Amino acid sequence: MSKIIVDEQYLEIIEGTNLLQACLENNIYIPNLCYLKERKEKNASCRLCFVEIEGMPKPVTSCTLDVEDGMVVRTDTPAVRRLQRTAFQLLMSVHEVDCAHCPANKKCELQKIARFLKLGLKPKGLDHSLRELETDHDHPFLEYFPHRCVLCGKCIYVCKKRNGRPYLTFAGRGLDTQISFFGDKDPLKLPCAECLACTLICPVAAIIAKTDT
Amino acid sequence: MSKKTHLDESSNLFAQEEAMLNDIRCRLKDYSAERRDLIPILQMIQEKYAYIAPITIQMVSDHLNIGACEVYSVASFYNQFKFNPPGKHPVKVCMGTACHVKGGDIILENFERKLEIKEGKTTPDREFSIERVACVGCCALAPVVVIGETVHGNMAPSKVEGLILGFQIEKEKQARLKEKQARLKEKRDADENGN
Questions:
Q1: Is some CB atom of chain B closer than 8 A to the CB atom of A93?
Q2: pLDDT at A204 exceeding the cut of 70
Q3: Which 8-state DSSP code applies to residue A180?
């Protein structure tokens, strides 16, 4: 067991536990979108789970650190909040905010994070621009909404884990990145009808089953 | 154009595609079935056929035994891989600094509107494709468009339609010439048979 201090709370954690995981399990919320406990190589792509640790010069992403004895962690310093707010606003600047018509409404991670960071859903000071993307809608079971997607990559991970190889993937690059279902669309060859793991893991309902539309 | 030649053209395209698939199938044998060969394979196809068709992606994924979407993910990441066959007259609109300042984007927009395709796409008859390129090396002529091998300098939005029309007229002329020759040949054959 290693003793750490998080926001002045003393915690006893099994050494080697993921720091973000340890905080979440002890009811210390740190905003996060792309973290998955079982994923070995953390994406650290959402840039929301920053914390400050004594002895480290800059805030660090908590999902990429393991607990070490004697760690002193702060989750709510001004530097951390600034980074989180900026990252969140950048995410929202390309997000279609239409909660009333979104199936994730009220259970959406983005709404939860906005409330936690005391931010509106529409970013202030940033242009709001939806990306111009060409998206295929010919998947027999799944529907993808690129303007809801936060590109956390959880769906790709769970799909690969469940089915041995992914049936969906990132396509494109930079601002044009989106999830693609490229491949054989024969309903009999796709495991999607019974699986739907990607729709369950998606934090923002960017992928939903066609029957739900 | 008569219906017959149109049919000929589409069956011709089909035969071309079949030949391409067979050729790629043969070439794939030179590559191992390991993931590290994915990009070399894609580069081979791109170099040989100037585009990567969805059906060839399927073929590559079967060869490497990975998901088709994984192949697409890699291929779509790199600008060097195209997914549309190039047109007979590829239109390259320069977006280098000088051309950009002189309104290259307006020229691009004009081509997109006139040909009714977006940048990176090919017209359904495979006559034209539009591509944006960085500097072609003659900034003094900005804005520049390169169609096929010909450089068109000092472009203006008003010149776009004329250029496209020129190619269409040329094509019709060729078709008429071909028809004339065919008629002549037919006539000659008939004469010979008569004798």
A1: no
A2: yes
A3: E
What are the domain boundaries of chain B? 3-77, 89-180
Q: What is the average pLDDT across B39-64? A: 93
> For chain B, how many residues are written?
195
Cβ A183–B67 below 8 Å, yes or no? yes
Are B67 and A169 an interchain contact pair (Cβ–Cβ within 8 Å)? yes
CB atoms within 10 A of CB A23: 26
Residue A165 and residue A109 share a domain: no
Average pLDDT over chain B, rounded to whole? 89
Residues A103 and A6 in one domain: yes
Our CA-based measurement puts residue A166 at a distance from the nearest CA of chain B, in whole angstroms, of 6
The nearest alpha carbon in chain A to B59 belongs to A183
Residue B191: predicted pLDDT? 84
How close does chain A come to B82, measured CA to CA in Å? 12
Q: Which residues of A touch B72 (CB under 8 A)?
A: 169, 171, 180, 182-183
Quickly list H helices, B78-156.
97-101, 104-115
Question: How many other β-carbons are positioned within 10 Å of the β-carbon of residue A67?
Answer: 24
Q: Do A22 and A116 fall into the same domain?
A: yes
pLDDT at A168 exceeding the cut of 50: yes
Please write the tens of the pLDDT for every residue from A3-53.
999 999 999 999 889 999 999 999 999 999 999 999 988 889 999 999 999
Domain extent, residue A187, equals 142-212
Residue A204 · residue A149 · CB < 8 Å: yes
pLDDT single digits (tens) A67-86: 999 999 999 999 999 999 99
* Domain-embedded: residue A190: yes
B66/A183 Cβ within 8 A = no
User: Could you read off the pLDDT of B120-133 as tens digits, one per residue?
Assistant: 889 988 899 998 89
Residues of A in contact with B76 (CB under 8 A): 171-173, 180
H or E element: which one contains B42?
A: helix B38-49
Asked if residue A79 and residue A10 are part of one domain, the reply reads yes
Nearest to A182 among B66, B72, B78 (CB): B72
Cα dihedral A113→A117→A121→A124 (10° resolution): -150
Q: What is the topology classification, in CATH, of domain B89-180?
A: Glutaredoxin (3.40.30)
